[in-house]
Amino acid sequence: RIRGRDALFFSLDNYDKIESLKEEEMYLVIGIVLAFIVSFWKDNRSLWNPVLFLLSLISSYFYLGYLFYQNGYEKIHFAFFIFPFILLPFLLFLSGIFLIYNGVILLKREGRSKANYLSMLLGIVILVFFALISFRLGGQNELFYTNHFLNILFVFIFYSYFIFGFAFTGFMLYSILYLFIPKKKHYDFIIIHGAGLLGGEKVTPLLKRRIDKAVEAYHKSKNSNIKIIASGGQGGDEKISEAQAITNYLLEETDVPQDAIILEDQSRTTYENLLFSKELGEKLVAKPQFLFVTNDYHVFRTSTYARKLNMKGDGLGCRTAGYYIPSAFIREYVALCVKMKWLFLAFYVLLSVLILIAYKGIIW
Q1: Rounded to an integer, what distance in angstroms lies between the CA atom of residue 310 and that of residue 201?
Q2: Could you give the strand order of the β-sheet that contains 227-231, starting from the edge strand earlier in sequence?
Q3: How far apart are CA 95 and CA 109, in angstroms?
Q4: Buried (b) or exposed (e) across 64-81, using 16+ Cβ within 10 A?
Q5: Burial, 16: exposed, middle or buried (Cβ in 10 Å; 0-12, 13-18, 19+)?
Q6: φ and ψ at 245, to 5 degrees?
Q7: What are phi and psi of 263, to 5 degrees?
Q8: Cα torsion for 313, 319, 321, 324, to the nearest 10°?
Q9: Using CA atoms, how far apart are residues 10 and 14, in angstroms rounded to an integer?
């Protein structure tokens, strides 16, 4: 009887712990989602948003699967776990093949430049990852157990794939979400970001799409005094500035009047496009609202620069040729990683400390 009573109390105690754990998991998911909502509401251009958005999706997904299991829907619960552990790795493997194929197409159409190799390079990196995992799990455990430096190298490689893969996924998903955020109708200035010129003086198809999107926003604006800022300096191989080429196109191909166009022809980078345009706008309007127009893959990173400059406004993306998007988006991601290099360095310092602790007395 005593044993039976103790077993009952033990079972009840464990049940209470399980129920408490359920509540903690639920509160954790709610906390992550609320953190994203608050961060998004405060400023949808914050670099915390991609991280919190991805964490919200992952935690909500697994918790939803857990709820199905708790309510007896075991088949649905099983389907929930097939995706992240079977379908997702398979899709990742296919994406590696696709990126290599896309890289070949891009090189044929756009020529050989360092940026045009990015798509192919990422595809190779993904396939190498699967090769490393296969080697690690393919009966080579004894080799890694006896060779500590090889094991540490594998940990560093796997860790790198994880943190950069997580960051890339968050950046990609949030960049897509950012494109669908409703834009305000009232702006004081529309900034057109320059791009390379055709023959050194004519707008390229890529730049033309930016201009056409800006003109569309110009006509939809409720502000009758809205101005378009043509932004972009003159490159070493260009006959005129990008701003002048944009202005020429506006005057020749659209119905935008000349007095609604402002030239900003000193900038050399995206950051300077915004900085110099902001300075021009603030000379004409107190606390101006800006709408900057660029290609869809470029919108979110540009918005982070605008946030850094305390610019009020939004980004608007225009369509990009499908074959060009993967490489261009990877380039955006690399630029963002460079911008956040100290954060990534901190992650590696943390890993190094953990390895030193784990291997104390073994390799040092």
Answers
A1: 33
A2: 261-264, 227-231, 189-193, 289-295, 312-318
A3: 21
A4: ebbebeeeeeeeebeebe
A5: exposed
A6: -65, -40
A7: -90, 135
A8: 20
A9: 6
Q: Residue 315: which of 210, 224, 172, 160 has the closest Cα? A: 210
- Residues in contact with 286: Cβ distance below 8 Å, sequence separation at least 6, in sequence order: none
Identify any residues that bridge with 190 across adjacent strands, giving them in sequence order.
228, 291
Q: Is the dihedral of CA 317, 267, 112, 91 positive or negative?
A: negative
Which of 228, 201, 233 is CA-nearest to residue 216?
228
**Residue 69 to residues 56, 79, 81, 255: CA-CA distances in angstroms?**
20, 11, 11, 61
What pLDDT, in 10s, does the model give residues 209-246? Answer: 999 999 999 998 888 899 999 999 998 778 999 999 99
pLDDT of residue 228: 96
Q: Of 222, 238, 212, which Cα lies nearest the Cα of 187?
A: 222
Q: Is 199 left (phi over 0), alpha (psi -120 to 50) or beta?
A: left
Among left, alpha and beta (phi > 0; psi -120 to 50; other), residue 35 is alpha
- Take residue 90 and report the two structure tokens written for it: 């398979």
**Of 106, 50, 58, nearest to 83 (Cα)?**
58
The residue whose two tokens read 């390895």 is: 355
Determine the Cα–Cα distance for residues 85 and 169; give it in Å rounded to an integer. Answer: 16
Question: What residues contact 264, with CB distance under 8 A and at least 6 apart?
Answer: 229, 230, 231, 232, 243, 273, 276, 277, 280
Strand 197-198 to 202-203 pairing:
antiparallel
Tokens of 254: 């659209």
Rounded CA separation 267/248 (Å): 18
pLDDT in tens, 53-103: 999 999 999 888 888 888 888 888 788 888 888 888 999 999 999 999 999
The model's pTM: 0.81
Residue 253 · residue 210 · CB < 8 Å:
no
Across 266-295, b (16+ Cβ under 10 Å) vs e yields: bbeebebbbbbbbebbeeeeeebbbbbbbb
CA-wise closest residue to 312 among 184, 179, 176, 182: 184
DSSP 3-state of 318: strand
